[in-house]
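Milestone 3.1: sequence recovery, worked example.
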């Protein structure tokens, strides 16, 4: 698809290769463990060096909290873990946290499965089933295999990646410490192997530690330049660090070396960030034609739906989401996208029903804020109180995430700027900007400064957020409001009109506010 790529080292500089501990607490030094217990979370290992030494602490005695279709149960999980954290005064990972691309492209949902090409020893479970069958059953089979073959480095790496996938799909971050231990075990058994390094890159990205993700990915690629997982994680990390030119080159390299769904979807997103929607759509359509499992079909169709949604084509978005849900009727990103498209199309009742289902199973900041705004826009009796409860849950999620070393500042800034503590929003946005310069962090900082009455400071960031050509109605709305506030009336009107022309239903409340601001500026 793309031209031949270059060497994976950036600008001739090698990233220091991560070092690893040699044993997991509770296991024998000689590797003679009988493998992980099926229902037990392994004891935390002593901290071993990582590229930035930022691994989250393992909860002691924490139990997994897997899924649940009732919203009340999900809320209780958040509250229960909050009480656990306060009572023990130690980090405990939030049951609500998913390793999702909350910041626009971190870990592509569905595309980051354990690849079918991942080698394991004879007799080990084929890792391909982890992407296309019953994940829990596959994990159980891997655990059983490792009890009899504890020195199978490939199986340990596959198990670690499966735990990362479980954390994402189940909203059960207790799998992350398990994943890290399994991946470290794999490294201790095969120090020169690339599988564990690629897995640790994926794990770091899932935790939003993108510097470490890049370091691990580069280390894996020095051993195996054709590792699909490492190639994909490298693109993710560069995108999330705001290094878009490098990300584009990494995408071309990955496309030349390992074309397929995981690479295609990232290639498309890099083009979308630059405003090249035509190429992004073409690449995603190619990825959809190459999808070989219901999970891949659901993921790619959802990405096409999101792309259509961003362009204001709600009818096409609904068609894509329908295809995704036909492939996997429980795929939450498709359900969330359908809720937004339904709201923009005038079906507020259907949108609320969909979004309530989403937050019942995954009470994350984005869906919680969206549901709160849908309630506010509906305005029925009790809706304001319902909305406040959603926003309060965002605060609970943020507190738990931060207590456990999870970077949640971007989510905090966006939610708090409109529905919470403005000072907290600004602190979080500044902290995130200090870590990485992306269009999303620029937009969040611009908006946090604006709602804090600091429009002169906000304007350069708003302009930077729109500089790449990324077609976001929310970014355009924010810039229009800030241009108006700084006295640039013509520019302000133009950006507000552009936001509404691009996607007139981009937000349950934001779109109405954009119209009001535009009318007031005439």
């Amino acid at each position: 698809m793309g031209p031949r790529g270059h060497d994976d080292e950036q600008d001739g500089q090698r990233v220091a290769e991560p070092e690893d501990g040699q044993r997991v607490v509770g296991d024998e030094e000689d590797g003679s463990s009988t493998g992980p217990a099926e229902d037990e979370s392994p004891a935390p290992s002593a901290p071993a060096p990582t590229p930035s030494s930022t691994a989250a602490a393992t909860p002691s005695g924490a139990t997994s909290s897997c899924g649940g279709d009732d919203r009340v149960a999900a809320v209780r999980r958040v509250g229960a873990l909050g009480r656990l954290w306060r009572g023990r005064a130690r980090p405990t990972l939030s049951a609500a946290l998913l390793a999702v691309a909350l910041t626009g492209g971190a870990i592509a949902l569905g595309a980051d499965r354990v690849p079918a090409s991942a080698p394991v020893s004879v007799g080990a479970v084929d890792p391909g089933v982890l992407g296309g069958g019953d994940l829990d059953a596959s994990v159980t089979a891997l655990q059983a295999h490792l009890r009899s073959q504890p020195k199978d480095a490939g199986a340990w790496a596959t198990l670690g990646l499966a735990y990362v996938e479980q954390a994402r799909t189940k909203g059960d971050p207790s799998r992350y410490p398990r994943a890290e231990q399994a991946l470290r075990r794999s490294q201790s058994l095969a120090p020169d192997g690339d599988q564990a390094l690629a897995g640790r890159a994926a794990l770091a990205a899932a935790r939003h530690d993108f510097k470490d993700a890049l370091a691990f990915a580069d280390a894996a690629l020095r051993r195996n330049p054709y590792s699909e997982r490492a190639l994909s994680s490298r693109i993710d990390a560069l995108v999330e660090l705001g290094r878009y030119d490098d990300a584009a080159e990494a995408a071309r390299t990955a496309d030349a070396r390992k074309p397929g769904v995981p690479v295609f979807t990232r290639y498309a997103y890099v083009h979308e960030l630059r405003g090249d929607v035509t190429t992004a759509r073409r690449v995603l359509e190619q990825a959809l034609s190459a999808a070989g499992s219901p999970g891949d079909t659901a993921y790619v169709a959802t990405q096409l739906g999101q792309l259509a949604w961003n362009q204001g084509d709600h009818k096409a978005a609904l068609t894509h989401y329908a295809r995704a849900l036909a492939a996997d009727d429980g795929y939450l990103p498709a359900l969330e996208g359908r809720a937004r498209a339904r709201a923009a199309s005038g079906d507020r009742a259907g949108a609320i029903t969909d979004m309530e289902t989403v937050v019942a199973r995954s009470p994350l900041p984005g869906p919680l804020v969206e549901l709160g705004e849908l309630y506010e826009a509906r305005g029925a009796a009790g809706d304001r109180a319902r909305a406040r409860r959603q926003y309060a849950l965002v605060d609970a999620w943020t507190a738990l995430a931060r207590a456990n070393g999870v970077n949640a500042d971007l989510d905090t800034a966006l939610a708090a700027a409109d529905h919470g503590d403005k000072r907290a929003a600004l602190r979080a946005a500044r902290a995130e900007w200090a870590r990485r310069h992306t269009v999303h962090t620029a937009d969040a900082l611009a908006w946090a400064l604006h709602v804090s009455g600091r429009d002169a400071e906000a304007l350069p960031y708003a302009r930077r957020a729109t500089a790449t050509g990324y077609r976001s109605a929310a970014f355009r709305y924010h810039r229009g409001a800030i241009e108006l506030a700084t006295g640039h009336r013509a520019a302000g009107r133009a950006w507000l009109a552009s936001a509404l022309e691009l996607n007139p239903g981009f937000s349950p409340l934001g779109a109405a506010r954009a119209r009001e601001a535009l009318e007031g500026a005439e």
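Residues 1-129 have pLDDT under 50 and may be disordered. The chain is about 65% helix and 0% strand.
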